[in-house]
Amino acid sequence: MRPVSLPMYDADRGAVAAFWRGVAAALRRREVDSVADHPAWPDDLGAHWLDARLLLSQSCGYPLVTSLAGRVQLVGAFRYTADGCDGVRYRSQLVVRRDDPARSIEDCRGRVVAFNSSESQSGYHALLSVVAPLADGGRFFARAVASGSHRRSIEAVQRGEADVAAIDCVSFAAMRREGWVHVRVIGQTEAAPGLPLITSAETSADDLAALRDALHEACADPALADVRCALFIDGFETLPFAAYDDILAMRRRALALGCATL
Asked: What global pTM score does this model have?
């Protein structure tokens, strides 16, 4: 079977599996070979994304334009309904503890930030772009703490181990729906193209076209309406790779201001 995953959001895995069954059925009707019955949840995403057999996965936008550039094919991106999304574009929510006096990111100068990964657009580079114009000598925060995930970043803020974090708006909506999130939003980052759906560089043009058609079909199938609602999915769009130039532009602006790291 050709590897498949939709691993990037802290999502309801049952809903992900149900959505994939709809996509898989549509792919089989289009005579795509070796379609997996179930999506994987790989531990090593970097190796998974670069697997020459990869049929479909979802990556972060920053790796797409850096380590994955020229090594995978862009299938497109989902439209999401979470607050902070606009079509296929999305933002990160800037969050602090509910009792924190901060009212804007400017009030977080010299404090501690939590981030999921330095390879993350939503948790790292989008926030770097926000604070770069405010930085002094290339620094805005006193300290940056790597948490490993958006969930852990929120937990760090809630425990007082960090003061602020940037959380992908779809992840934030999903975690808020679980009922355990007790933070306050003080702003948003600049919008960027949403998390890219990718396939192997070895995937044929016919299979790439079938993937796009199958995703369109699954996003319009009335039988999958409840599943899409659970995942905040509102549709699918194809995008040119150049759409993700916005991410590189944000990085270049931060570097031009002398701000290379959080």
From this structure: 0.95
